[in-house]
Write a structure and sequence with these properties.
Blueprint: E1 11-18, E2 23-32, E3 35-44, E4 48-52, E5 62-71, E6 77-83, E7 85-94, E8 96-99, E9 102-103
Antiparallel strand pairs: 1-2, 1-5, 2-3, 3-8, 4-7, 5-6, 6-7, 8-9
Length: about 110
């Protein structure tokens, strides 16, 4: 499974933005065989952050239903995370993306 694929089925518990530093940190908790593991996604050189959900009702938790990353034509990296339905999620455009401290290669 790719590094980004490890996020699927996890619970997104932290989403923090360092506006001055142009960084976004996402923590996803994965339950596996009775253990809880944390996956840290770090986006640096962030130029765009979008969080969307047409339904304003609060959730009990935010499950990562799908996650993908791609290199855009301008050389930036776009991280897409879907939560529950295709209509809800987040997109982050950045210069570099790492998973647990390891840069994601394309």
């Amino acid at each position: 499974m790719s590094s980004i694929g490890r996020l699927w089925g996890g619970i997104l518990r932290e989403f923090s933005v360092d506006v001055a530093g142009h960084r976004v940190r996402v923590l996803v908790y994965i339950h596996n065989a009775g253990q809880e593991n944390v996956i840290e996604v770090m986006c640096t050189g962030v130029t765009e952050v979008r969080v969307f959900d047409p339904n304003p009702a609060a959730w009990d938790y935010a499950e990562v239903t799908a996650a993908s990353a791609r290199e855009a034509l301008d050389g930036s990296v776009v991280l897409d995370i879907t939560m529950w339905t295709e209509d809800a999620g987040m997109a982050i455009r950045c210069a570099e993306l790492s998973i647990d401290g390891q840069p994601l290669a394309f």
